[in-house]
Predict the 3D structure of the following.
Amino acid sequence: MNGKTSMELRIGSSSENESLARVCVAAFAARLDPTLEEIADIKTAVSEAVTNCIIHGYEGSEGEIRISCSIEEKRLHVEVEDQGVGIMDIKQAMEPLFTTKPELERSGMGFAFMEAFMDELSVTSSPGQGTKVVMEKEIGKAGLYGYSGTD
Amino acid sequence: MSEETGYEIDGGTLFIRIKGDLDHHMAEGIREEADRLIDAYGVRHVVFDFSKSGFMDSSGIGVIMGRYQKLHYAGGSVSVAGIGGRLEKVFQLSGLNRIVGRYEEAKMGGKGRR
């Protein structure tokens, strides 16, 4: 594929929209001809990011989540952004098993999954203004769990 | 659109059959209904059957872990069935495989599935 192609999706912070978000991003990524495993990786990472916006960013109240995706060469770029409460301590929030909402049975694995299933993850946040998660994944390379031949 | 989750009690065991994607949206409903059934029928064991599901994220991990905590201290247990491929990867990565066992698939055919 030549050049750059992009997509933007704006959804409300309702949990029903989690499946919509991951299916849309997966459909967008389909033009890179990903494996089923890569599709599942993308869906899981998007699901985690959007769920975070709903539970933590907006804390169950109404708000808008912006998801923008682009493809350049074989790379998928995904941004998930809210204008919610923001994160006080990003480093702590990204630690596996850390959660501020144990009463909601949050496993604290959200960021760990995004990190495991995508190639790159960065998080920017300002308390009171919102959070933006940027993820990238190269499609079509022999992955960590896939076939690894000789170069 | 996912079908409805199936619930079935056999003796002291509650079988929860997940149909479709186990995400935050589905997890909330399961948590509520499972706890209602556990308390009402004195359930001691819970089996999550994933043979009709191909997707689970960290919210799914949370709902399984929550039922484990609820039952473990009362001497009960939680196990999973029908986990393969993708779900296996998520299950291993979360560390849940260290505290939650596999329900014997053979038993599933006899008891859980009717």
Observations:
- The CA atoms of residues 8 and 113 of chain B lie 9 Å apart.
